[in-house]
Structure formats: C-alpha cells, structure tokens
Design goal:
By secondary structure, the protein is mainly α. The chain has five helices and three strands. Strand 2 and strand 3 form a beta hairpin.
C-alpha cells in the first residue's frame, strides 16, 4: 500500500516542479530572445507589465471564470478562445492544450500571445494590461535588466 502513495506523491511533486515563477529580468531576457520586444508595436516593458498583472510571472497561474472557462499560464490565455481544456468549449485559436501553457517552458505561451496580439484589439485582450499598463511610463519594468 505504501508504494502507490509514494508514486502519487512523486508524480505530484514532479508536476509542481515543472512550473516556474520568473524574476522580472529573467523573464525580460526570455521575452527579448523570443522576439517580443516591439512585437505588434508593443515594447518589452508592455509585455512584462502585462505578465506581472495577469500572473505575477507565474507559469502555473490558473484562474477559473464564472462561465466555467479558465485562463492559463504566465499570460493567462483563455480556454474559451485560445486553448483547449476539459472545462469548456473552445475556438482553440492557438491550437494548443491549455495544460501545456502551465510549464516552465513558455515558448508555446509566447507563440500564442503573438497570435492574440495580432488581433485588432492588440494587448487590450488582456484586462490586466489595459487597467495597469496601457498609456503609462513602463520604463521601470526593464530598468536594471542589462538587456
């Protein structure tokens, strides 16, 4: 009986370790390397500000909405429009499983975010960006990052 419990614990621990909370400058470097600085007309500081306000740089962030859809990952990507999960129907515009947006590898999150920002509403798709970042001086987000 002890070994199945141990296996379950190990599985849970490995799932937890696959997530990551980025430091601001570490995330800035990754986003810059992946071509987000200037992408869609938005500076790297805009992307950092948005990621902070929607997930506090946590790749495992997940929030369930009243309509039973959910937002996933460091960019809080919606299951209703952009990824597919078992909770709600989805347009799956990014052709990705929502659970794949929860790992420390954020390449798929970045690809999807690029797809989202190409829509006419741009970064307004993220309420956190519209409320906290839009139209503000965001230079502090990249300050001291040695990019």
């Amino acid at each position: 009986m002890g070994s199945p419990v141990l296996l379950l614990l190990l599985a849970l621990l490995s799932a937890v370790t696959k997530a990551k909370v980025f430091g601001r400058c570490d995330l800035a470097r990754v986003l810059q390397e992946e071509g987000l600085d200037g992408y869609g007309g938005y500076s790297l500081a805009n992307w950092l500000c948005m990621a902070f306000y929607v997930s506090t740089f946590n790749t495992a962030a997940q929030s369930i909405k009243a309509d039973s859809s959910a937002d996933y990952g460091i960019f809080q990507i919606s299951s209703q429009l952009w990824c597919t999960d078992d909770r709600s129907p989805s347009d799956n515009g990014c052709r990705v499983a929502c659970r794949d947006l929860l790992s420390s590898n954020i390449t798929d999150d970045i690809i999807c975010a690029k797809r989202i920002v190409r829509n006419p509403q741009g970064m307004n798709a993220w309420e956190g960006w519209a409320m906290h970042c839009k139209g503000r001086d965001l230079s502090e987000w990249v300050e001291g990052c040695d990019l």
